[in-house]
Amino acid sequence: MTAYVLVTVILPHNVTGCVNQKVIGIVTKVDKEEGDPALAETWLRLTGCQQVFHVSSVTGEGIEQLLSYLVEEP
Any bridge partners for residue 51, and if so which? Predict the structure, then answer.
């Protein structure tokens, strides 16, 4: 079973090196006009997330891809 760590705050660069599981990033509320999903993804990648998903619970964007990843990833 794969455990997932949710990074919800701005963390130092490469902080994911201290965990022994894959760490994914999830950018939420991508439907908001005032947001900057690209900047949020950059921050997540700087912390060490190799896979980043963009999702919106309002429009459903990205939900299927995220669920597929979580189900298929060993």
Answer: 24
pTM value is: 0.75
Count the residues in the chain: 74
Nearest to 26 by CA among 57, 61, 66: 66
- Please give the backbone phi and psi of residue 12, each rounded to the nearest 5 degrees, phi first: -60, 160
The string of DSSP letters for 8-61 reads: -S---TTGGGG-SS--EEEE--TT-TT--HHHHHHHHHHHT-SEEEE--TTT-T
Q: Which two tokens stand for residue 72?
A: 């298929």
Residue-by-residue pLDDT tens, the chain, 74 positions: 444 444 455 566 666 677 777 888 999 999 888 888 898 898 888 888 889 999 999 999 999 999 999 998 66
